[in-house]
Write a structure and sequence with these properties.
The chain is α+β, with helices and mostly antiparallel strands. 31% of the residues lie in helices and 34% in strands. It has a single domain, classed as 3-Layer(aba) Sandwich (Aminopeptidase), CATH 3.40.630.30.
């Protein structure tokens, strides 16, 4: 097994291409039974184009981390402090290439993004029915929050649910 290194990614053209590659390989697998393929394709085309990714990497209070193996990006994670809500943060994305799932990469990446945001309540939204993601988040201290809600993804209504993780003491184990 190749060595995996989790590092903070600076917004660079090389990182944009790697993140887009991971997204295009993980989304169809992750949402195969939850969303129509056309919706997944439309979302990928809009959200993972270079300009959109560059904007996301520049978000105020944001963190964008990569996990690499043999110099290649195998996963990414994005989180952001809520600018108008001190002590609150959102986990926007965490995706791991299918062949690297179940090998601890996602957990290492999540712990790396949670550490500098340990003083925040961390929120994550996931598609209702995405039980694999719900189990992953629960194993890292996230609990269900409130009821479900409906969001639009590429113009398609999607039933969503929220999970939240309480702030952690600095230096505490983060999952």
């Amino acid at each position: 097994m190749a060595d995996v290194n989790v590092r903070a990614a600076e917004a660079s053209p090389a990182d944009l291409a790697a993140v887009a590659r991971v997204a295009h390989r993980t989304w169809p697998d992750a949402y195969r039974d939850l969303l129509p393929a056309a919706v997944v394709e439309a979302h990928l085309a809009a959200a993972y184009r270079p300009e959109a990714l560059a904007d996301r990497m520049r978000l105020a209070g944001g963190l964008f981390l990569l996990a690499e193996a043999d110099g290649q990006c195998v996963a990414f994670c994005q989180a952001q402090r809520r600018p108008a809500a001190p002590g609150e943060a959102d986990l926007w994305a965490i995706y791991v290439l299918p062949q690297w799932q179940g090998r601890g990469v996602g957990g290492r990446l999540l712990r790396a993004v949670l550490a500098p945001l340990a003083d925040c309540r961390m929120h994550v939204a996931l598609a209702a029915g995405n039980e694999r993601a719900a189990r992953f988040y629960a194993s890292h201290g996230f609990v269900p929050e409130g009821g479900g809600y409906r969001a639009l993804l590429a113009g398609h209504p999607v039933e969503m649910r929220s999970m939240v993780r309480a702030p952690q003491a600095r230096g505490a184990d983060t999952g």
